[in-house]
Structure formats: C-alpha cells, structure tokens
Amino acid sequence: MTVIARAAEITRRYGDALALDRVTLDIRAGEIVGLLGPNGAGKSTLINLFVGLRRPTSGTVTLFGGSPQDPAMRRRIGMTPQETGLPETLRVGEIIDFVSAHFPEPCDKDELLARFGLSDLIKRQVGGLSGGQKRRLAVALAFTGNPELVFLDEPTTGLDVESRRSLWDGIASFHEEGGTVLVTSHYIEEIEALARRVVVVGHGRVLADDTMESVRGIVGVRRVSFTADLPDPEGLPGVLGAERAGDGRISLVTTDPDRLVVELVTGGTPFTGLEIKPTTLEEAFLAITSKEAAHV
Ligand SMILES: Nc1ncnc2c1ncn2[C@@H]1O[C@H](COP(=O)(O)OP(=O)(O)OP(=O)(O)O)[C@@H](O)[C@H]1O
C-alpha cells in the first residue's frame, strides 16, 4: 500500500520537555490507524506535526510526498483537534458552508449531515447544540473538504454511547469508501471498533505498532486468578498488577503465566479454582507502558 504520510525519526521538544523521541511512523492509503497512549504520551504532538501546525525539532515529516507546510498538501487532509471552539451564533448549515468554501471539491452537504446524524440540526445555532451534537459537528467538519486522510484527536471523548456509535459509523463509512484515518483515543474499545492497526505510544516513543491481536501477543499478558491464603502474590513471576477480593480470591495480571503457576505449585501454598484468561487490550496496554516505564 502506498505511504501517504510519513514521520521519520521525529524528535520534538518543548523547551526541556521531550514530547517525541525518534518516532518513525508510516500511514498507508486506505488504513485506519489507532493511536493509543496515556496522557502526555505525545499523540497530539504527532498529529500536529503531520498536519503542519508544528515542526519537528529534528527528523522529517512528509504528507503526500510533500511538506505538511504546503497548503496544496494540507487541502487533502481533514482534522478534528481535541478541543474545538465554533462560533455560537452560526447555524450548523452555515458553518459547513463556510468550511466547504475553503476547498476546491467539498463533499455533498446533505450526505455529510446524514453521515454524522446532523440532518435534523441544519438550521440550529451552534450555541443551542448539546455537547455531543457539537462534537459530531466538529468531527464532520474534518470531512467537509473531501479529504484523503483524516486526523481525529480523541473524537468521542465525553460523548454518550449512542453519540459515539453514530460517530464511529460516520468514520467507518468514510473508510469503506477508501479514506485513510489516524485516530487517537483513550477508549480501548474505540480503537478496537475502528482500527485493525494499533500504534501504542508512551513517553514519546512508539512502543508497539501492529495488529490488535499482535499487540496483545507482544506482551503475552494473562490474568491468573485463584483462591489462596497467600501474603505476597505481587512477588510471583511477571506480576504487573494484583487484586484481592474479600472472599480471598486473588487476581493477577502477569507476563509469565506458566512460570507463575509452576512457582505457585512448588511454593506449596494450597489454592483452588485456578483460572487463566486472556486480558483486555487495556490491560495489555498498561503492561506495555509500565514495562517501558521500568526501563527509563
Ligand atoms: N505547547 C507545549 N508546551 C510545552 N509542553 C508541551 C506543549 N504541548 C505538549 N507538551 C508536552 O509534551 C508532551 C506530549 O504532549 P501531547 O499533548 O502530545 O500528549 P498526548 O499524548 O496528546 O496527551 P493527551 O492524551 O493528554 O492529550 C507532554 O509532556 C506535554 O506536557
């Protein structure tokens, strides 16, 4: 697949703070890339570099083979930043007309409104919209110019389940028609719903760049639970997190379930009800970031 955006060995500093540390990332035509990482990992900085709002301290960013600073390249992208302020007195339809006017071939207004569940709101003033409706409008604006590539920075933060699903549908239908998307989120299920490729960032570095299944596999994290009278379960092999229920049941997230069970048996502590289960992506993700933190 053709690479349409590339960050090559990007470092970005804000004064003494290192926001991105030698990050390399290719975005290929037609994919949805999910960018996952804790607060301050560098996700917004990476987006701002791709869309030309900031420049790297070192390294290069290319957009459609050119520079993100070139308006001709930027006209081919769309973006929804984390926070948007829209003029309160304008109507939904007027805002879409205004943004459309900046692009040579804007998309069909009615189609755009329908795609993001805004058709009934066309005459409403922005100031009178709910938080979820405003957010849907802000995301819809990223698609107004018929972009090839869209950057969405936490598109559904703060939305209820129904609004989130409606936004996901809009994003998915853009992708089905061949569009490319980079989406950041704190919601694991959002990345799972939208993207097959997941890039995990932490401390300004790419920690994993793979399919959802492989990201889980990379860390090989499992949840091991059993009932026992064990004073120090945290000391068992590979344990990243431990929870103890009132009934004596212990639940451990571990990178090495096999060795943990061997040690449990050889340690001679009686236990019952042993269960080993795959973890959620969130647990896997926390494991990667905490392992990385242990290295710095
Ligand atoms: N304008 C700025 N001036 C100084 N430091 C900044 C600036 N913008 C970002 N940073 C720092 O760079 C690092 C990365 O921030 P960034 O906003 O890219 O992270 P993020 O992954 O998008 O976080 P969040 O999920 O909270 O939005 C953080 O340590 C942040 O404090």
TrEMBL record:
CDD domains: ABC_DR_subfamily_A (cd03230)
GO biological process: response to antibiotic
Membrane topology value: Peripheral membrane protein
InterPro entries in alphabetical order: AAA+_ATPase (IPR003593), ABC_transporter-like_ATP-bd (IPR003439), ABC_transporter-like_CS (IPR017871), ABC_transporter_ATP-binding (IPR050763), P-loop_NTPase (IPR027417)
Residue span, ABC transporter domain: 5-228
A GO cellular-component term linked to this record: plasma membrane
Keyword tags: Antibiotic resistance, ATP-binding, Nucleotide-binding, Transport
Localization: Cell membrane
GO MF annotation list: ATP binding; ATP hydrolysis activity
PANTHER family: ABC TRANSPORTER ATP-BINDING PROTEIN
Name of the protein described by the UniProt record: ABC transporter ATP-binding protein
Organism: Nonomuraea longispora
Highest classification ranks of the organism: Bacteria, Bacillati, Actinomycetota, Actinomycetes, Streptosporangiales
